[in-house]
Structure formats: structure tokens, C-alpha cells
Fold:
Amino acid sequence: MGLTGLQIFKLLPKTNCGECDLPTCMAFAMALAQGKTSLDMCPYVSDEAKEQLESAAAPPIKKVTVGTGEFTRAIGDETEIFRHDKRFFNETILAIEVKDTDDVDAKCENFNDLKFERIGMEFVVDAVAVVNDSGDADKFKSAVETAVNKTERCLVLMSEDVDAMAKALEVAADRKPLIYAATNDNYEKMVELAKEKGCPLAVRGNGLMDTAELVDKVVAAGHKDLVIDPGSREMSQTLADLSQIRRAALRRVRTFGYPSMAVTTKEDPMEENSEATVYMSNYAQLIVMKTDEKAALVPLVSWRLNLYTDPQKPIAVEPGLYEVGEVNPDSPVYVTTNFSLTYFIVEGEVEGSKIPSYIISVDTDGISVLTAWADNKFSGDIIAKYIKDLGLEEKVNHKKIVIPGGVAVISGKLEDESGWEVIVGPREASGIPKFAREKFGK
Ligand code: SF4
Structure:
């Protein structure tokens, strides 16, 4: 467990000098315990006290970084068991397996195409996991080299053969790949390699207790950028192990204070998707998968988006005026909220109407139409202000605005405040194409 304010206070100089911007050492201790200040704000802490305090202040799960450049990914640094208590921070890395016996060129080409667009955001699959399936060190090195040249995404190098790993790192170390894996048989040499090349290292044990002992040995050998694979390949056992690792880490059991990972086993892509979803939901911060089928990966990427969104902050689009198609002065004007899901559903339906249109996205703190209306964030006067501030009168040659059918009640106020004619649209966005054709079609 982290230290309490009182425990921290006992380690401070107790001079109440105020140089930490707090009036007393006790106030500083309390603030430090709550994570509201940092230890370096006090210039008088002794080295011995600093060591104790830094260890107590360290995050329960170490942050580990894989990759370089645009596709650098950080995992770990999580603080919660339940997402709704605060949030999860660093998204699970999805890695797709490419065996050195495969057509590595073609696999990497396909991998680079694994991009998905959802609610206006682009998502990619993060990592290629090159597997030394052949058992041949040169073949492994060649496959890794191809992956290095073909993709800029993160790399996971999967071989327990230290010589093969050393050869692969000759061509890949600059990309800071995850080395997979240190085991009971090879950990000393794998640790040396990981330390020499400055790469993160996966530790794969054989069950939870064995993994714990192995992690301690690896840490004692001097490497701490670790990812834990408890080694089980049976789904319920993996789920139990991942959960226990997270719980132990948050109770400050240092052995388990690293991000954990899982490797899927199902052959059918959709079953594999379900397996990966279970692992992701239960704290796997890196998952190695076999399928590279978009249809199987889209739901997983969507689930990851949901899981790692701040539950207190809905995903929102920028408030403002959006153009759908080649708008002109006759184009209809719709209004909706800036809740992403609502906005993009409306945008899709307006696009489906094939009538170029404007959409006003009102800042409702990312909440949906009826909720925003109930919270007085989607009212006649607010929308009237948008019409004025966005200069709509200069953009269109009419003064008509379409509001969602669910909030017809704001029509009067909006007409009074804006001087525009309010047209009550359909209650559901799916009704927009028919509505638009009837109202605005030529
Ligand atoms: S700077 Fe250090 S010694 Fe001074 S009040 Fe703050 S905690 Fe106490």
C-alpha cells in the first residue's frame, strides 16, 4: 500500500519552511499522499527518506513503452480494478502474429491496411508479433528485418532462443520492440540482451506462482521494463491469472506491478475475437492474436475504445458548423448535439439523404439530445446563439432550421430568439433521408 500522510510526515524535515509552496510539512505530506504535489517540491528531503518515499509514490503498475515514433505505445500505469471508479488510461496493444514461415511481405502489407474509422476517429492495430516458428535464427532475423522495413508499427519479437533473439535485435533494436520471452531456461541471457538494447522484456512463467518467482529473478538481474505473461493458454485460467495480477499490483505487491499480457488460442477469428475481448476486459495490456481479418478486429477495436474512454467524459465532436456534401445557399440546416455517437449517426443519415446540408453541433458536454435538453444545454436560446455566432444568415438564403423531433417543445423559444422558422424533424435519425426528400427534395 502507499504511505499515509502521517507516515510521509515522519520522513520529512519538519521545519515548516514553506519552500514547497505549502505552509507546513504536514500540509505537504497530506498533499503528497493525495498525489497533489510531487516530492521534488521539497528541497530538504534526505536521500534515505527520498528512497522510501519514491518507492511508495511509484505507480502500482509500471508504465512500459514499446516502439518508437508515431506508433510508440505505452501500457501499464493503471490504478483501477473497475473502470467506473476512475478510468483506464493506456489502451491495450493489439499485436497480430506473423510467423517467419509465412509470406512475411504479404502479411505486413495486409497489416498496414488494418485501419478503421469510427465516430470520426481512425484506429489502427498497433503491433506485429514476429514469431520464430521455423526455429531457425537466420530465418527469424530475415522475417524481423522485413517487418522493420514494411511497417512502422510496434514490434513484438517472439522467440525463446537467445541466439535468434540476438540476431533479430541486430536489425530491430532501434525500434524498441518487446522481447518475448524470458523464461526459466533463458532469463539470464534474455535480461542481458534487453538491458544491452534498452528494450522491454516479456516474462513468461508457468502459472502464477512460477511467474512471480521468475519476475523477481528478472528484476534482481537488473531489468524492470517488464510485461508479465502468466503462461496459461486456457481461457478461464488466463482470465483468473490476469485478474489476480491486477488485484495484487493495486495492493502494491511489487512483483506484479507490471502490465500483463495474453496470447489467444482460438482458431476461428470470431471466437478469437471473443477470447481477446475477455482478456482485454480483464486487464491484459497486450494481446497477441492470429487473425488479421478486419471483420473480426473491428468489434475488438470498438470495444477497446469504449473500455478506455473516460466514463465521466463522453466522446464529443467539436461544437460548430459542419458541411455534409457540396453545400449551397439553399442547403437545409440541421441541429444536433456534440455527443459523437449522436452527431455521426445524424451526419450519416443526412449524407444518406443525398441533399447537401449544414449541421450545427451544439456543445452539450458530449451528451445526447434528450439528456442535454433536460439539463438545459440544448434549449431555444442556446441554439439561437449558435445560429447568430456561426453567421448562418450569410451562408444560406433561407431562415429555416430542422430540430430533432424529440425536442419539438423548444420550437417556440427558438423561433422567438432567432427569428428563424423551426421545422420539427423526425424523432429518430433514421427518419432523416425520407424526411429530407419530402421537405427539401427537388
Ligand atoms: S519544503 Fe520541505 S521542509 Fe519546507 S515545509 Fe515543505 S516539506 Fe517542510
User: Anything to note?
Assistant: The chain has three domains: 5-57, 64-307, 320-440. The domain at 5-57 is CATH 1.10.15.40 (3-methyladenine DNA Glycosylase II; Chain A, domain 3). The mean pLDDT is 93. Residues 235-250 form the longest helix (16 residues).
